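User: Please write out a complete single-protein record containing the residue sequence and its fold in token form, without commentary.

AI:
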Amino acid sequence: MEALARGFSVFLYDSLLYGQDHSKILREIRSKKKNGATCQFVIGDTRDINLLEKSLVDFKPDFLFHLAELVGIYICDDNPAYTKEINFEASKKVIDLGEKLNIPIIYNSTSSVYGNQKKKIILDEHTPLPEPTDNYCKYKLEMEKYINIKKKTNSNFKVIVLRLATVYGLSPRMRLELLPNHFTYCAISKGTIKISEPKAFRAQIDVDDVVESYFAIMEKNQWPRLLYNVGHYNLQKIQVANIIQSIVDCKIELVNHLGDIRNLQIDSSTFYRDFDWKPKYSFEETIRETSKWIKSNLSDIENYNFAGIINTPLDQWLKMI
């Protein structure tokens, strides 16, 4: 939406895997366009490389953002073969196509590849990585390796890989299972935030800051490095819950079962320096906005069984909340 608001024309290519109401989303997105910007949409799958190539040739984009993968540990581990097909085999073809058509590519990896860090350290792009324990991280790392090889064999190929922190906040297709959004939903709907591993850290970044980081990338003629961490806050899970509790009247309950084992803090200073950019959105303010949205939409969210707003299988999501 922000790209249209700034006068950029946008082409969207999406399979609508999660059953989202694309007409409603498109109306919301297009309502922001200015200065003659256009928004085109094709319902397509990255495995249909011929349709994707035709679409890109017709639109002639200046940049290609590859965000079309299964996202999240639970959905990827529940569908290992499908995950490999989408997040690795199809993603390789998207990267190949960008190289073939000479389109600069921004590829979203994840800070989750840093895994469960036993020591309280800040992780940069040179930190040795643990073996992945889930299919989501496994194929993100495989794609990082693939892109690295492509870049080494073709130095003219313009591509950047972003290890994003957990992204939270409001978006046209909300994701409620992301930690801050998840905790905020539980606080409002259940009156209680249940936490395992309360002292575990997570790197966090507002979705609007991610968008701003994309503009910083597009405005830079040269991308100095291939790989960057991109995050803002490093917060313990209990800190996240305490902030939410200061905004939403709720209880915090510590539970003993082993939940998501990730524990990580990331250093994003290299990205800040190379792109002369820093995140600016307040965690507290976004939680306030998110809580207002959840309160306004709570009955629809639950009556429609969270359709289109969670990537996690519903039975697992219900156990989590």
About this structure: The chain has a mean pLDDT of 92. The CA atoms of residues 243 and 284 lie 7 Å apart. The first helix runs from residue 2 to 5. The domain at 45-320 is CATH 3.40.50.720 (Rossmann fold).
